[in-house]
TrEMBL record:
Taxonomy, superkingdom: Bacteria
Entries under Pfam families matching the protein: Flavodoxin_NdrI
Organism: Pediococcus acidilactici DSM 20284
Record-given protein name: NrdI protein
High-level lineage: Bacteria, Bacillati, Bacillota, Bacilli, Lactobacillales
GO molecular function term, any single one: FMN binding
Length: 157
C-alpha cells in the first residue's frame, strides 16, 4: 500500500466523480515526477454495489444531499448518499477508514459538507478535508498532500 491511496466515493450529480478524476490525474502527475508519490485507486459505491469487506485502509468521499430538515436544529433526511454510509458500516469497514472528505455547496451555509461531518461523528473517524462542488486545482493539491501524509503515517505506525 506504500504507493497507493485508496478511496471510496459516491457521486450523484457527477461533481464527486469529476473531482476524483482530477485528483487521480494529479496523483499520476506527482507519481511521474517522483515514484515515491502514491497513486490513487478509487472505487465508486452505487446502489448496485455488492457489499464487501474492505481489506486496505481508505478514505471516503461524500457529497451532501438533504431532503428535509436543516441538519442542525430540526433534523435531517439524507438523500441519495445512504448507500455509501451503509457500505462503510458493513462489517468492519469503518475501522479501515482513514478519514472522510466532504463536498457541497457553500451557499447552504451550515449544511455545507454536513454528510461528511455526520459520517465522521457517527463512524468515529475524522473529517480530514472538504471542497466545493467540483473542486479546484488547489483543492486537489491540498487534499492529495493531506491523504498522502496520512497514508505515510499509517505505514509508519
Amino acid at each position: 500500500m506504500k504507493n497507493e491511496i485508496h478511496l471510496l466515493y459516491i457521486s450523484i450529480a457527477g461533481n464527486t466523480q469529476s473531482f476524483v478524476d482530477d485528483l487521480s490525474d494529479y496523483a499520476e502527475k506527482m507519481h511521474q515526477q517522483d515514484p515515491k508519490n502514491p497513486l490513487i485507486f478509487a472505487k465508486e459505491i452505487t446502489d448496485e454495489t455488492e457489499f464487501a469487506d474492505e481489506e486496505i485502509p481508505y478514505f471516503a468521499f461524500v457529497p451532501t444531499y438533504l431532503d428535509g430538515g436543516n441538519g442542525i436544529d430540526n433534523g435531517v433526511k439524507e438523500l441519495m448518499t445512504n448507500v455509501l454510509g451503509e457500505y462503510i458500516a458493513y462489517h468492519h469497514n469503518r475501522e479501515l477508514c482513514l478519514g472522510v472528505v466532504g463536498s457541497g455547496n457553500r451557499n447552504f451555509n451550515e449544511q455545507y459538507c454536513l454528510t461528511a461531518r455526520r459520517y465522521a461523528r457517527d463512524y468515529g473517524f475524522e473529517m480530514i478535508d472538504d471542497y466545493e462542488l467540483r473542486g479546484t486545482t488547489k483543492d486537489c493539491e491540498r487534499i492529495y498532500a493531506n491523504m498522502a501524509e496520512r497514508v505515510e503515517e499509517e505505514i509508519n505506525v
